[in-house]
Input
Amino acid sequence: MTEQLVAEGVAIREDSTLRLPSHNVTLNESEQGTATRLERLLQDGGFTPPEMKELEERLHVPRKLLADLLGVLESRGKVVKVTTELYFSSTALEKAKTALTTHLATQAEISAAAFRDLLAISRKTAIPLLEYFDRTGLTLRVGDVRKLRRK
Output
């Protein structure tokens, strides 16, 4: 039944959420200002964006509001959730993906250390990013290296 509603355009599926095509979340002026600052912090962070705790402190907002705003930004395609504590701007994540696929186009595989060096980031950020690319089907972990997943 759900699949039929989606196929007919009556509903839209976004991961585990089902919504009407006309549904849009709107933010009040204060929330929109905070969301704009949040988006900027993630953009400025590039490949090493601030984690949730730092975002809470820098924006002076409670975690619940921060999570809600991140959800709105994610639904708008502005940010991407890599882990529960780590979000990237869509632009930075796309650049990381491009760097990874470019490397893997000429090399058969990449280690976590090589990926870390490729983006000039810490292991603390490299591992979650690699795991994200594994989860989303871009790469496949084989032992201690990643390879492009062939479709």
